[in-house]
Design a protein that fits this description.
alpha+beta; two-stranded antiparallel ribbon; 200 residues; 6-stranded mixed β-sheet
């Protein structure tokens, strides 16, 4: 027994296992949680309109360019395991035929996180290091909520390594090119309607 409450965020003593974490999360009526170093971490709830529109825009942009009989584009609900840690990215792209449990993305190709004031360090440092350690990953994208700007870590085709620092893609006329998927995404499309939602 883990002593988990079925209704509240955990005041538990770490560490807990991944299996215990998944069992506990299934019993929670609401909220987003991740597992880091054996501890349950509650993620910020109540995403802004800007945050949700950016994620939706990425889904629509990718969906219009990728064969949906081959690729799965999922927002928020799929777990990504990095060693003993479990994260829930804002968006996951993987092949439909990827093996593994139904609640996890074990072969993610592209991951997206949308920045919030409380997540800057985690998304740009901790998660960047974690996600780029995944053998299947081709690209990790962070999107700003405040302007048309993204940061892109992309695996080099020749060396198969990720850069130490991301490429900054800025401005409505700029594009993100995802080599592994063979698609280019205009920032004007990814940030459509976002400026009017800022602060909402």
């Amino acid at each position: 027994m883990t002593g988990f409450s079925e209704t509240t965020a955990p005041p538990y003593e770490p560490p807990i296992t991944k299996a215990e974490f998944y069992a506990w999360v299934e019993r929670q009526p609401q909220g987003r949680f991740e597992l880091k170093d054996g501890r349950i971490v509650q993620q910020m709830t109540g995403a802004t309109k800007a945050h949700n529109r950016i994620v939706s825009n990425f889904i629509f942009a990718l969906g219009a360019r990728l064969d949906r009989d081959i690729w799965s584009i999922t927002a928020s609900d799929l777990a990504v395991e990095i060693g003993d840690d479990i994260r829930y990215p804002d968006l996951v792209v993987e092949r439909l035929d990827s093996p593994g449990p139904p609640l996890t993305a074990e072969h993610a190709v592209v991951l997206l996180e949308v920045l919030s004031p409380s997540s800057v360090k985690t998304d740009r440092q901790e998660k960047a290091a974690e996600y780029t350690s995944l053998a299947s990953l081709g690209a990790y994208i962070i999107a700003s909520q405040d302007e048309a700007k993204c940061w892109l870590w992309q695996r080099d085709r020749a060396t198969h390594a990720f850069p130490a620092q991301p490429v900054e893609v800025t401005g409505q006329t700029a594009m993100i090119t995802l080599d592994g998927l063979g698609v280019s995404l205009p920032l004007a499309e990814l940030f459509r309607g976002v400026l009017t939602a800022k602060g909402a």
